Amino acid sequence: MRVLMLNYEFPPLGGGAGHATACLLREFSRREGLAIDLVASSAGRARVERLAENIFVHYLDIGKRGGLHYQTMPELLAYAWKARWHARRLIRQHHYELCHAFFGIPCGCLAGRLGLPYIVSLRGSDVPFYNERFRGLDRLVFRQMSVRTWKGAAFVVANSQWLRRLALRTAPQQHIEVIGNGVDTQRFRPARSAHAGLRVLCVARLIARKRIDVLMRAVAAVGEADVHLTIVGSGNEERPLRELARQCGVEDRVSFAGNVPRGKIVDCYHRSDVFVLPSLSEGMSNAALEAMACGLPIVMTNTGGAAELLRDGENGILMGGGSVREVSEALRRYLEEPELARTHGARSREIAEGLSWEKAASQYAELYARAGGESR
Q1: What pTM was estimated for this model as a whole?
Q2: Are residues 12 and 108 both part of a single domain?
């Protein structure tokens, strides 16, 4: 079976969806009888790279000029336009049995115009009313586009039960499968170094939706010199966050690590005691899964797939609104009860061991077979 895959995000561009695609392709590279051509965006020139015997990535030049982890509307439009023509060219060259689109908009909309049976993987902001930034467009345009795109798909897949429920508000009659993210439990393993105090880690794009400002204010509110925060990631909020650290008087206890290479990011988890992500919305956080696999307790806002990762408080603290007070209380609790942090961290590892990219890839492979079979 040959599959045409569409995703405007792919490392080094993008966030969780790009990472998930890379992990799935790694698993698919081990499967006989499956070949995949991914059409993605490039941070530079257009090119084609062979990732494995059966995996090719076609990078399109979208005129990328800004940060790697955020695509502007002109860049998305450039991808949609160029991907349409490149996908049609590939279809003339190869026989594809289906198309797999990550993000309903724009990739799912594009897939619906290619004449192939298609699968849409919903990731978060592509679901109407997930992202406050798109609320006006969701009401005016994106809701109608989503209903039409999902209705024409062979399968629609959400990465968490929460995201599925949100999508069903837009299309109550739509059948939506759930295939969660996975984690490499061999690479991400517990191995924390011994130290005094509490080392807090946040791995996220530095954008308003992640609310890293709340976490920084919480560190200041704890008022303990032994509480240190490391922020891994980049984005348009970095400059105001650095200024906030200065204003809060914690600039000596907050480290901005920037974009850490995938091969070294596990060291960040190993040097930490707790992972915190006070986002307004999340599908299913890849970073939280990695932190769990490394044996860290998790503190997250009760949004998105967080409740599916934090099992009734067994492996972390699930906050209501994720206020400064809630975050600071969670940090103070782990600071004062290190044994609780160890217990929650051990349970995190147990839960992570039940999740894998191999499992996710197998679930998608089953959908590929079903969609391809039904198209004959």
Answers
A1: 0.84
A2: yes
Spatial distance between the Cα atoms of 12 and 289, rounded to a whole number of angstroms: 20
Tally of domains within the chain: 2
Which residue is listed with tokens 């696999």? 293
Question: Which long-range contacts does 24-31 make (Cβ < 8 Å, 24+ apart)?
Answer: 24/357, 24/360, 24/361, 24/364, 25/51, 25/52, 25/55, 25/57, 26/357, 27/357, 27/358, 27/360, 27/361, 28/54, 28/55, 28/361, 28/365, 29/53, 29/54, 29/55, 31/361, 31/365
Q: Is the residue at 224 inside a domain? A: yes
Instruction: Tell me the CATH number at 279.
Output: 3.40.50.2000
Tens digits of per-residue pLDDT, 158-182? 999 989 999 999 999 999 999 989 9
**Which are the contacts of 104, defined by CB distance < 8 A and separation ≥ 6?**
120, 122, 126, 127, 145, 146, 149, 150, 156
**Residue range of the domain that includes 306:** 198-352
The DSSP symbol for 140 reads I
Q: How much is the pLDDT for 235?
A: 85
